[in-house]
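#onboarding

Welcome to the new folks! Below is a worked example of what a typical request in this channel looks like: someone posts a single protein sequence, and someone else replies with the predicted structure as tokens. Don't worry about understanding the tokens yet, we'll cover that in week two.

Example request:
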Amino acid sequence: MFEFITLNENRDFRRIYRIGKSSVHSLCVVYAVKNRLGVNRVGVTASKKVGNAVKRNRARRVLKAALRDACPNITTGWDFVIVARSRTAVCKSTELIEVLKKQIEALTKPKSNSKPKQKNSDR
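Example response:
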């Protein structure tokens, strides 16, 4: 199961927004940055654009439920901020699972630094 610590501090959210990589979808936006703690930390947020308090809370609940099922084998040492969009409040967590899987895998997979080999052209 995907174990994580909840982010609560505003400075952590701002740091992740500033230096983190992002992945955008119509249901949610995921920001990710490596940490040196050896554990995953997650913050889930929804702005007033999502709707009233009931809709914002539902959007956060749906995102957290989908997150638990989306990535059970994710590597540790990452900070994530997941931002709800207006469509998040009306969708099911099962719809979000695949979206979150793709976004998190795209953000956390190691980048290959190998450059393609250049052909030597003899003139």
